[in-house]
Predict the structure of ABC-2 type transport system ATP-binding protein.
Amino acid sequence: MIEINNVSKAFEDILAVDDVSVTMKEDTVFGLIGTNGAGKSTVLRMVAGVMKADKGTISVDGISVYDNIGAKERVFFIADEPYFFANSTAVEMEKYFSTIYKEFNRNDFYTYMENFGLDKKRKINTFSKGMKKQLALLCGICSRSKYLLCDETFDGLDPVMRQGIKSIFAKEMESRGLTPVIASHNLRELEDICDHVGLLHKGGVLLSKDLEDMKCNIQKVQCVFKDEESEKKGLEGLQIMKEEKRGSLYTLTVRGNREQTISHFSTVDTIFFEALPLSLEEIFISETEVVGYDIKKLILS
Ligand SMILES: Nc1ncnc2c1ncn2[C@@H]1O[C@H](COP(=O)(O)OP(=O)(O)OP(=O)(O)O)[C@@H](O)[C@H]1O
């Protein structure tokens, strides 16, 4: 488990990370989402132990990360522009990472390289941006470090590649408890990969929730009440996050699971009632509107 407790980091007068506390549990894919400049890279760098927090503590499986080899071996960090030695090939990078990560799996590495159609002998500086990201991911996965920190690594990967990496993640999670942490500025890049999402905004955490919980605990309802009395009864006792009324048609976003919501409306006289599924975008918009943010413009554009 990665535990970030009350962590802050400033660069002169820029407070990049402001009192952040987040727990990243094992066996989940954690998505760290936020706008450009929200502090994602800074958080990941501190978790990787390459940058020191000004305040607060970060531990990986109970071990403090900064300046601690034991913790660093558990973490592989892929920067937003993956770094490779000048003029190197994948073979040379494999040799380097094999010395750093003692359990580096060379067999898997070369098998995946072949499956992904990446040439192990070609200079990496002739690779496309997406190919460099794939290579960085393969190095990270094959390092067999428990935590794989990916900074914008999935943004821009084509769907086939995403699917390929997703299935490798699933396999490695199952077989050895790989725990990927993926930072992105775009929710759409994360929604099919992550189990848990932490939303960073202006250096602070706006929310951190399991996607399944989020999906199960917010419903969208459309209804037309029979009369004023049923309208009053229908609206009472609901935890309404958002309410719109067009003519007599209500569109409500409410907290609670589907069964609770349907059961509430079964006691009310309605002319029309429908419980609709919400997309992840709608859920995020509702969750962040509640805390006073218009996230639409920020992470969905
Ligand atoms: N080395 C640095 N020196 C000065 N300021 C920095 C440094 N690194 C980050 N910052 C500042 O800290 C803030 C957070 O930056 P960070 O790179 O962590 O954000 P981010 O969420 O990863 O953004 P992006 O999505 O654009 O990569 C920004 O205001 C940035 O300008």
Notes: The chain has two domains: 2-202, 214-297. The longest strand covers residues 14-24. The two ends are 32 Å apart (CA to CA).
